[in-house]
Design a protein that fits this description.
By secondary structure, the chain is an alpha+beta fold. 43% of the residues lie in helices and 12% in strands.
Length: 341
């Protein structure tokens, strides 16, 4: 971890004022992982905390809304979804000069490789089943009961998302990529009719956005809610199932090419079937949902790459790698489409 040059005295005074029971700030260290909203470990006499902030510099419209992360985690805490306890939200005029929120530090294990080489076969099965259970639990939450009925816009979720991420991609475009142009056109022409189903969606549901207990089978916290909104649950499921298709020997560390049966990792079809049993949600328009997920991730990574070139990325070295991944994602999306025509 690295340290950012904050005014420690001003930050200590502010945290003492807004975080219940906070006292004695010792250290602020930036986590090196993550590409979007900078995240920091806070150590104080009163304990350990996590501070998550907007990045510095000019930002794309509707991006980096840490206040939305704070709101959704606070709302879901009482609805069967494991989230860190949020403690305080500071505005743009904060002691660090940008909006941030503070949450509890959840001590546990984060798995970075979806093949789980450090775990036994039975433990791998339990980890994937734990993820599946959390996703189904999230999608069973009634947004109105959680006070989140206005957390997203009404209407066709996929149509809105294609518009949003097409605009974001074009705004952060650094060169011509015909596959992305073809993909955007196909998605716009194949948007499924709105079936009226609305869930809280995480937006970045994957293994390394979860903190597990020491044995691996129990999810202690689902983190990184920056892309959460009200939307269609298939978007979360398809996004996670990209992991089964991405190559393992790439920067994505996917599950493609691995003997999943030997590893104890469920096949995509089995994972989806278990999700349906738990959530009661039927899987439809799967080809479209997968293609959309590849496109959306490509647009997100293009934004990270653009911030890297502009000098505003949280992890510049990783950001440059992500820039190279955008063509791969666009190509894989077109392969999914071609394979199901």
């Amino acid at each position: 971890m690295e340290t950012d040059p904050f005014d420690m005295e001003a930050l200590a005074d502010e945290l003492h004022e807004i975080v219940p029971g906070f006292s004695g700030l010792h250290a602020v260290e930036k986590f090196n992982t993550g590409q979007s909203n900078p995240t920091y470990r806070i150590e104080a006499d009163s304990g350990k905390y996590v501070l998550r902030a907007k990045p510095p510099g000019p930002l794309l419209k509707s991006a980096h809304q840490v206040d939305r992360e704070y709101r959704v985690m606070k709302a879901l805490a009482d609805h069967g979804v494991p989230v860190p306890k949020v403690l305080a939200l500071a505005g743009e005029d904060s002691a660090i000069g940008r909006m941030y929120f503070v949450m509890e530090m959840v001590e546990g294990h984060i798995f970075w490789d979806p093949a789980l080489p450090e775990m036994a076969k039975a433990e791998r099965s339990a980890i994937y089943d734990g993820m599946n259970s959390v996703l189904a639990a999230l999608h069973r939450v009634d947004p109105k009961a959680a006070g989140l009925e206005d957390f997203g816009r009404p209407g066709n979720y996929f149509a809105r998302q294609i518009k949003r991420w097409s605009e974001q991609y074009l705004a952060s475009k650094t060169g011509e990529l015909p596959d992305m142009d073809r993909l955007m056109a196909w998605l716009a022409e194949h948007v499924p009719d709105d079936d009226g189903r609305v869930s809280v969606v995480h937006g970045d549901f994957r293994l390394d956005n979860m903190i597990f207990d020491g044995h691996g089978g129990h999810v202690l916290a689902l983190i990184d809610w920056e892309l959460s909104t009200l939307g269609h649950p298939m978007a979360d499921l398809a996004y996670q199932c990209m992991q089964w298709r991405l190559p393992h020997d790439s920067g994505f560390r996917g599950l493609g090419g691995l003997d999943r049966d030997a590893l104890g990792i469920p096949q995509e079809s089995d994972y989806c079937e278990r999700y349906t049993e738990r959530s009661g949600i039927k899987i439809e328009n799967w080809t479209f949902c997968l293609a959309f997920s590849f496109f959306r991730l490509a647009s997100i990574l293009q934004g990270v790459y653009k911030r890297t070139l502009d000098g505003n990325a949280s992890n510049p070295e990783r950001g440059r790698e992500f820039g190279k991944a955008v063509p791969l994602l666009a190509s894989m999306a077109l392969e999914v489409i071609a394979g199901n025509d």
